[in-house]
Write a structure and sequence with these properties.
The complex is a heterodimer of chains A (169) and B (179). Chain A has 169 residues and is mostly helical. Chain A has eight helices and no strands. Classes of the chains: A mainly alpha (169), B mainly alpha (179).
Chain lengths: 169, 179
């Protein structure tokens, strides 16, 4: 992985990102704006599952309102995130926070897909809170996104946050 | 009002010193600031999209707005507290930073836009609350809101790349920065 990071770091594209001063702040800004879109879209869906938001609307309506923004935002985050990795490979690959964040993103995507799969069973009338495993899944999803946001910022402070566990150490 | 003295006093305060000396304070406070900013933008964006008639056309505007605003204000309070802590840690550096100054201007304009909307544009909200298409002034307020908050986020991120972290002991011998 270290060799891959070094190779990526030396590519012309990575060099361009590194020396063009506005690229990284711009990518990070877009990434942060998309956190707003993805986190809040997901929060609206999970709050609906729990019956705390738009409980007068069917779950399917709330899902169709917010899921496209959430998935679209995730795609933009994946692209800007990938470009940030190309720009600073050792910073990302050497951070324990980065790897935990990626694992949690995977779990969050799987849990969201699970909530989406409930549409087949959700009643089509204006319904109250959902029952069954959707509820714990909703709570876990909110905690996961908050943890992902914290870990994202922690990439810049890996040694301060993880001490000897940091891969930079 | 002696602003440089106030800035220096803030920078010499207990919370400022805690921010500078605690190893984990900066990452945790910064992450909470990102979470707060994302929540402010994400919730306001939903209201703005309703104003623009892009989404939630069949839901009353005031309903969408009321549902979102408690989250917006809670997150804004968190953003002010965490932002305040980040500011005092290096107050003298922030104070003269152009990106920071423009960010504050952006926040002020976003607030003004909200006040004008609340007290002038939305006075007759009952007549268009459930309409699919809001009046032009309301749609302009929605578009302005999106643009201003985007600008605030971009400028905020720009601060981190233009100010650097100033851990130097300032020349002013009146302040004790030994930690």
């Amino acid at each position: 992985m270290n060799e891959f990071a070094q190779w990526l770091h030396a590519t012309a594209f990575s060099q361009w990102i590194q020396v063009t001063t506005w690229v990284i702040p711009l990518l990070q800004s877009i990434h942060i704006v998309m956190i707003g879109v993805v986190f809040i879209s997901s929060l609206m869906i999970t709050l609906r599952v729990l019956g705390h938001m738009r409980a007068d609307e069917p779950f399917a309506a709330v899902w169709h309102r917010f899921a496209p923004w959430m998935w679209g935002g995730l795609v933009v985050m994946a692209v800007t995130g990938a470009l940030l990795i190309v720009g600073e490979p050792p910073r990302e690959f050497g951070a324990l926070s980065f790897w935990i964040k990626m694992a949690l993103v995977l779990v969050a995507v799987l849990l969201t897909t699970f909530l989406g799969s409930l549409l087949k069973h959700a009643p089509h009338d204006a319904a109250s809170p959902l029952r069954g495993p959707a509820r714990p899944a909703a709570y876990v999803l909110v905690v996961l996104w908050i943890a992902i946001i914290f870990l994202g910022r922690a990439i810049a402070y890996d040694i301060e946050v993880w001490g000897g566990l940091s891969l930079h150490a | 009002m002696d602003i440089p003295a106030i800035v220096q006093t803030l920078q010499a305060s207990g919370p400022a010193e805690w921010m500078r000396t605690s190893v984990k304070a900066m990452p945790i406070v910064e992450a909470a600031h990102v979470l707060a900013a994302a929540t402010v933008f994400g919730t306001i964006f939903i209201v703005d999209l309703r104003l623009l008639g892009v989404r939630d056309r069949s839901r009353a505007f005031t309903r969408v707005s009321l549902e979102m605003l408690r989250y917006t204000w809670a997150a804004f309070a968190l953003a002010v507290i965490t932002g305040g802590l980040m500011f005092v840690a290096n107050a003298s550096t922030y104070w003269v930073n152009t990106a920071f100054q423009f960010k504050m201007l952006g926040l002020l304009l976003a607030g003004l836009n909200m006040m004008v909307f609340q007290h002038i544009t939305a006075r007759d909200v009952r007549s268009w609350d459930t309409a699919h298409r809001a009046p032009t002034a309301a749609r302009v307020a929605g578009a302005l809101s999106i643009l201003l908050w985007l600008a605030v986020i971009f400028l905020a991120r720009w601060i981190g790349f233009t100010k650097g972290y100033n851990f130097d002991v300032p020349d002013d011998p009146g302040i004790n920065f030994e930690f």
